[in-house]
Hints:
- This protein is mostly helical.
- It has 11 helices and no strands.
- The chain has helices at about 5-15, 25-50, 60-70, 85-115, 115-130, 140-145, 150-175, 180-185, 190-225, 235-245, 245-275.
- The model is unreliable at about 10-15 (pLDDT under 50).
Amino acid sequence: xxxxxxxxxxxxxxxxxxxxxxxxxxxxxxxxxxxxxxxxxxxxxxxxxxxxxxxxxxxxxxxxxxxxxxxxxxxxxxxxxxxxxxxxxxxxxxxxxxxxxxxxxxxxxxxxxxxxxxxxxxxxxxxxxxxxxxxxxxxxxxxxxxxxxxxxxxxxxxxxxxxxxxxxxxxxxxxxxxxxxxxxxxxxxxxxxxxxxxxxxxxxxxxxxxxxxxxxxxxxxxxxxxxxxxxxxxxxxxxxxxxxxxxxxxxxxxxxxxxxxxxxxxxxxxxxxxxxxxxxxxxx
Length: 284
């Protein structure tokens, strides 16, 4: 004989079950919430230009048209039309060539300084003396060392990237808790194995912080680096547009740099979260 569950019993059972999260809440926090601030800034930009009536700052619509012409042409047909990808590729190669070189130098150097007291006393004072010198102060010397061209730009970007990578890597190594060494030694971990399995994983969050800081610095230094007589590159295009009072091209170049930096920073974050999946508190 079949039994019919009483309505009160069903209500009691449902009351005890946890409420399921709304379907749209994760979508809101993932996509809609981060878009609110950029939309608000665009609206404020449009409103400020309309209220002031200035002709010096273009409206967002005009910058969007310039971005299209910069990439595909067909609107203004001037010297900047359909040149975006050429400038972008040149800047990308310089930024990430210098960034990779800074990582290859900075991470091992930071590991050595953090682990070896003698190396720290030998290298760290000079490093701390050079670190406050602005990269722009190296601009004349870079042109003397490397001549007028892309090598000087790569050197300046490398110089700006390497210091945060070294400092953060050193901090990460020196922050490893002594109890980890004791626990690893009890498990038979010694010598180089201790470094690979204890020091390097524990320092990895700080290493990625240094990489992200260096990556951000690389993109704003490329504009300075491409002032050294480089004919192509986003920084060179921005400098040329400034000389011609083409504010729309300047802002378009800034948008491309910002978007490219954001996307590649997300790549670094994804690698960070992948390598540090064993440590959820260090996921970004």
